[in-house]
Design goal:
Elements (H helix, E strand, L loop, with lengths): L2 E4 L7 H6 L7 H15 L5 E4 L7 H7 L6 E5 L14 E3 L2 E5 L2 E5 L15 E4 L12 E3 L10 E2 H4 L2 H8 L1
């Protein structure tokens, strides 16, 4: 099982095509391409943490969610309608987990300070669509900055940090 992270997919939301330079001709093209990219990297037994702003409406979320591979967790964003449809393994406003010996703090919003940041924890977030300069050990996992697909922790970490952890 592999664990992936993504945020700000904004499935079926025409507004995002006007606000950010996404390379899609239409909302239908955007949805189809992002679903394909997701399913290319994520298998059915994998886990995906979506850090908010999943889809425009509950109906859109209910239609798209079953088409995506993996067990899916949602950390709510400012554009996620409530209640969410069935199909999420968990829904929260904030989450912490440990992965490969690394403490992760997950939220839709980027933090200036987060739990254990001075002891090596990492903040994964969305919301800023790549428009915010990150702090050390802070990563925007938004679709706009991650090739419109979920990414793994090892893809985010600098090479020297990966070497330190594994050898």
């Amino acid at each position: 099982m592999t664990v992936f992270f993504i945020s700000d997919t904004h499935f079926s939301d025409h507004r995002v095509l006007n606000l950010y330079p996404r390379p899609f001709a239409s909302v239908a093209d955007m949805d189809a391409e992002m679903i394909a990219r997701w399913n290319t990297v994520v298998g059915n037994d994998d886990e995906v943490w979506h850090l908010g702003d999943f889809a425009r409406t509950i109906a859109h979320a209910a239609e798209i969610l079953p088409r995506l591979n993996g067990r899916k967790h949602l950390v709510l964003g400012n554009n996620d309608p409530q209640p969410q449809p069935a199909g999420w393994d968990s829904i929260a406003s904030y989450a912490e987990l440990q992965l490969d010996g690394v403490d992760l703090v997950l939220c839709h919003y980027p933090f200036r300070r987060w739990k254990a940041m001075d002891r090596g924890s990492i903040n994964l977030h969305g919301h800023s669509h790549g428009r915010l300069k990150p702090l050390p050990r802070q990563f925007d996992v938004g679709a706009d900055v991650r090739d419109f697909r979920p990414v793994t922790l090892s893809e985010l970490l600098p090479l020297q940090q990966r070497k330190r952890r594994h050898g």
